[in-house]
Specification:
3-stranded antiparallel sheet
Length: 113
């Protein structure tokens, strides 16, 4: 598991969630928005819980490996959501909707087949 330090506190979460969270924060670096996310965690007493974070382009997180015998919390949904959010930020750009836009972007529709 990984211990994430953020905003003066820390929490323990799965390797997959930690990785997805860091990639999401890195992708937010080019945007001017923030996003609220729920992260499954393991508390110090071994109980699972959820932490809610507001992440923005200036968020500073530290992730460190931590050995533990506690079981991983169910994190598949949180990890998938973080991946979707990241893809939305770095995914493909829209295709021009008109020939004028296409020509301005270097597309040529006057090709004979």
């Amino acid at each position: 598991m990984r211990r994430i330090s953020y905003s003066g506190g820390s929490f323990l979460t799965t390797d997959g969630v930690a990785d997805a969270l860091l990639h999401f924060v890195a992708a937010l670096g080019s945007s001017h928005r923030a996003e609220a996310v729920d992260i499954p965690i393991v508390r110090d007493d071994g109980q699972t819980d959820t932490v809610q974070l507001v992440i923005g382009p200036a968020s500073e997180l530290v992730s460190a490996s931590e050995s533990t015998t506690m079981p991983d919390p169910d994190s598949a949904e949180a990890e998938a959501r973080l991946h979707r959010l990241t893809e939305a930020l770095v995914g493909p750009k829209p295709v021009p909707s008109s020939q004028a836009d296409a020509t301005a972007h270097g597309y040529d529709f006057d090709v004979e087949l």
